[in-house]
Amino acid sequence: MAFEVKGTIGDHYNEAGGASSPLGEPISEELDAAKGGKYQEFAGGVIYFNLATGTKTVYGAIRQAWEAEGGAGGRLGYPTSDELGIDGGKISHFENGSISYSIADDAVTVNAN
Questions:
Q1: Which of 68, 75, 43, 69 is nearest to 57 (CA)?
Q2: Are residues 92 and 79 in contact, defined by beta-carbon separation less than 8 angstroms?
Q3: Does the model's pTM come out above 0.90?
Q4: Three-state DSSP class for 76?
Q5: Over the stretch 68-113, which tens digit does the pLDDT of each residue have?
Q6: Whole-number Å distance between alpha carbons of 99 and 90
Q7: Could you tell me which residues come within 8 angstroms of residue 79 by beta carbon, excluding any fewer than 6 positions away?
Q8: CA 52 – CA 80 distance, rounded (Å)
Q9: Cβ–Cβ < 8 Å for 90, 101
Q10: Which of 26, 46, 78, 84 could tie 50 with a disulfide, CB 3.0–4.6 Å?
């Protein structure tokens, strides 16, 4: 089944490279999220939208840790950055903290404000 990607989520998806990006093909329609936001699932990640934080992508181990913390409705809130490269890993910033991933240790660290 093919899912449409539209609006601000669609714009973000296309800017990331669409189906040829690490996100891959959409695997859900656009769905409602906490606090009036929206999200859409893709084979390789998820894109979230909220008026206060904009449209951001969350992937892999950082996504798993964020969802374990309750995702957008949890203590960290919505993502405020896409995943960024840092020395030895990746980091994503959220409304109330950040999650970093160490490639060498294959481990995540959750930092709540």
A1: 43
A2: yes
A3: yes
A4: coil
A5: 999 999 999 999 999 999 999 999 999 999 999 999 999 999 999 9
A6: 8
A7: 48, 53, 56, 57, 58, 66, 92, 93, 94
A8: 9
A9: yes
A10: 78
